[in-house]
Design goal:
Layout lengths: L1 H4 L5 H7 L3 H20 L13 H10 L2 H14 L3 H28 L25 H16 L4 H20 L5 H20 L8 H5 L2
Helix pairs in contact: 4-8, 5-6, 6-7, 6-9, 7-8, 7-9, 8-9
């Protein structure tokens, strides 16, 4: 009798019992992402499959870290005696700072934990670095790569090396176990798009005379 008097299930319960195709697809992709990222974390520890290459991967990690880039750009800006070079370096500094702020905000909002096989021995971290989405190294690599290719006159071999550096830095994040694959892929897309924002907001003696007066 109870079954005959029971009414239809509420709509939200029906949705829980019959998950959408999109929800199933996203859950499946997330599972694949976690599985593949763990398999590719071959330098996550000294006892990993490629553990002997971990020191090299950590050197690559430092090459994509924000602090060396910020210090190097600032020092170049202080020592430059060319107005054109100062303009490029000032905008690179602006791009790097914007990258740090944006990545920190997204990490704080998403709060995705780093892979369980990651060792927290990273070079100079801050509070939001306990989160992994997106990869700040990948974002920075894509941003710097586009910036350098657009504003520096380089021979073809050097341009190829810049692109390879950006790819190697990004791949090393998964190999070290720092990030999942989706963290890196989103970071590359974000960095690529962020450069367009920097170009749109390009700082020049006309648009920002107070900044250039400091140098």
């Amino acid at each position: 009798s109870s079954s005959s008097t029971a009414g239809p299930l509420p709509e939200e319960d029906c949705m829980k019992l019959n998950p959408s195709f999109l929800g199933i697809a996203l859950s499946s992709l997330l599972a694949i992402d976690l599985w593949a990222s763990k398999r590719l974390g071959v330098c996550a520890g000294e006892n990993s499959a490629w553990g002997s290459a971990r020191p090299l991967m950590k050197v690559i990690e430092v090459s994509g870290h924000g602090i060396p880039w910020l210090l190097g750009t600032f020092c170049g800006l202080c020592q430059s005696d060319s107005s054109a070079a100062r303009e490029v370096l000032l905008n690179l500094l602006f791009a790097l700072l914007l990258d740090l702020v944006l990545v920190a905000v997204v990490k704080g909002l998403v709060k995705r934990r780093r892979p369980t096989h990651n060792k927290m021995d990273m070079f100079v971290t801050i509070s939001v670095d306990k989160y992994s989405f997106p990869s700040g190294h990948a974002t920075r690599a894509a941003l710097v790569c586009r910036f350098v290719l657009r504003h520096l006159v380089l021979a073809v071999p050097l341009r190829v090396l810049v692109v390879l550096w950006a790819l190697i830095v990004s791949i090393s994040r998964v190999m070290l176990g720092r990030h999942n694959m989706t963290d890196v892929l989103f970071g590359l897309v974000l960095g690529y798009a962020l450069y367009s924002v920097v170009e749109y907001c390009w700082l020049s003696p006309l648009s920002a005379p107070a900044l250039f007066a400091l140098w």
